[in-house]
């Protein structure tokens, strides 16, 4: 078992690595044209972990070698329980930020793009995995450090496909997303539905000769707003975020469209959003709804390995499963592989110009990871 003194050192090492990571531009190129992507940060971590004795594998989506993710398997007995340490390496853009890749520390606060979302968590996961590999703990950590979480989850999807080929059958997955070191209890899913309205064009001086698609869209918008009150009472949400219609003045518009976002809670299938939206149509409209993106909701298991890990991690951190994320994270993807836990250090300014992470949380999280996963009673 690692000593308390070493736990302190683990926290220091995590902060040191965090400073290295935020210096690397890993803005997601799917969000910002021409952005750097994840290649440089994968190269740094692959070199570091290879030197620490990990078997490292770069995994890319099909035909996209410029979007790498890293799988790093700790040395040790193959029959040891396997714990996935998962985090994403990409960040959102840096528009409006001064020196976004220069870490600025004020007290226990570090400012930089990606500091909280989520290079603080990644640094803690990496250092904890290195410590467990060095001390020969009872579990085998496998780091899955992925691309593209901020957009389409190409990285996690590719890594999940690759795991069986690499001989990885994990007992549990820990995602180090920012939660203020509380355990995530649930997160909402979502669906994006495109709704189109067809009308008939005519001169606007003779509207009776046309069918106004924009008018139908307006009536639909009112119905969505009315439905939202009921949906929000269940913990979900529904809203219209994009509207388009018509081409020119003096013409009754023969087409209109909008995007409807539906936020779902555990127990609701995101794909059913199309049917729910279509119930708001008037029978006189020529309208259709098509789902263009969806992800499922998630909740922490009440029993089993994830529940055990959550309880023990929370006990060390002094937190419980109280965080209900209003936004989506990749836990539903990993839950298909194995029971999954979300917990990690946070701060503020996520996706904003003043992003920061609480270094006390980074240190505490790294130390708690080692203390909990070094315990032989974790999966008893």
Provide an overview of this structure.
This protein is α+β, with helices and mostly antiparallel strands and 380 residues long. The protein has two domains: 4-187 and 298-373, Zn peptidases (Aminopeptidase), CATH 3.40.630; 189-295, 2-Layer Sandwich (Alpha-Beta Plaits). It has helices spanning 4-22, 39-51, 115-135, 154-162, 213-232, 273-278, 305-317, 331-335, 359-373; strands at 55-59, 69-73, 82-88, 104-106, 109-111, 140-146, 172-175, 183-187, 189-198, 237-245, 255-264, 286-295, 298-299, 321-325, 340-342, 347-348, 356-358. A six-stranded mixed β-sheet has the order 1-2-6-3-7-15. A four-stranded antiparallel β-sheet has the order 4-5-17-16. Strands 10-11-9-12 form a four-stranded antiparallel β-sheet. Strand 4 and strand 5 form a beta hairpin. The chain is elongated, with a radius of gyration of 24 Å.
Please state how the strands of the largest beta sheet are arranged side by side.
1-2-6-3-7-15
Query: What is the share of helical residues?
Result: 25-40%
Q: How many extended strands?
A: 17
* Helix run count: 9
H and E string:
HHEEEEEHEHEEEHEEHEEHEHEEEH
Q: Determine the CATH topology of the largest domain.
A: Aminopeptidase
Structural class call reads: alpha+beta
Mean pLDDT: 95
Main sheet summary:
6 strands, mixed
Number of domains: 2
Assigned CATH architecture of the largest domain: 3-Layer(aba) Sandwich
Proportion in β-strands: 15-25%
- N- to C-terminal distance: 17 Å
CATH superfamily of the largest domain: Zn peptidases
* Apparent shape: elongated
- Rounded to the nearest angstrom, the radius of gyration is 24 Å
CATH class of the largest domain: Alpha Beta
């Amino acid at each position: 078992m690692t000593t308390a003194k070493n736990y302190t050192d683990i926290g220091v090492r995590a902060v040191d690595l965090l400073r290295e990571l935020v210096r690397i531009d890993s803005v997601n190129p799917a969000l910002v044209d021409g952005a750097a992507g994840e290649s440089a940060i994968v190269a740094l971590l692959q070199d570091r972990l290879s030197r620490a004795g990990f078997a490292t594998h770069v995994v890319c989506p099909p035909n996209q070698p410029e979007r790498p993710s890293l799988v790093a398997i700790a040395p040790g007995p193959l029959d040891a329980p396997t714990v996935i340490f998962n985090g994403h390496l990409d960040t959102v853009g840096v528009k409006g930020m001064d020196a976004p890749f220069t870490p600025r520390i004020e007290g226990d606060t570090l400012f930089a793009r990606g500091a909280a979302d989520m290079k603080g968590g990644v640094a803690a996961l990496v250092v904890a995995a290195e410590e467990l590999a060095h001390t020969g703990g009872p579990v085998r950590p496998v780091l899955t450090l992925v691309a593209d979480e901020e957009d389409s989850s190409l990285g996690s999807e590719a890594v999940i496909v690759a795991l069986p080929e690499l001989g990885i059958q994990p007992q549990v997955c820990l995602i180090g997303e920012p939660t203020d070191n509380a355990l995530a209890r649930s997160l909402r899913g979502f669906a994006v539905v495109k709704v189109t309205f067809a009308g008939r064009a005519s001169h606007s001086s003779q509207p009776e000769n046309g069918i106004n698609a924009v008018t139908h869209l307006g009536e639909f918008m009112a119905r969505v707003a009315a439905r939202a009150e009921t949906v929000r009472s269940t913990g979900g949400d529904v809203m219209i975020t994009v509207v388009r219609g018509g081409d020119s003045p003096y013409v009754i518009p023969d087409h209109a469209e909008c995007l409807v976002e539906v936020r779902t809670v555990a127990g609701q299938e995101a794909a059913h959003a199309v049917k729910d939206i279509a119930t708001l149509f008037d029978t006189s409209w020529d309208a259709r709804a098509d789902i263009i993106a969806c992800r499922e909701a998630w909740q922490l298991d009440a029993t089993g390995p994830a529940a055990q890990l959550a309880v023990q991690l929370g006990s060390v951190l002094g937190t419980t499963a109280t965080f209900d994320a209003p936004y989506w994270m990749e836990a539903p993807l990993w839950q298909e592989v194995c029971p999954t836990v979300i917990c990690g250090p946070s701060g503020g300014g996520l996706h904003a110009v003043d992003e920061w992470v609480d270094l006390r949380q980074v240190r505490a999280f790294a130390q708690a990871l080692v203390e909990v996963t070094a315990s032989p009673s974790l999966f008893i």
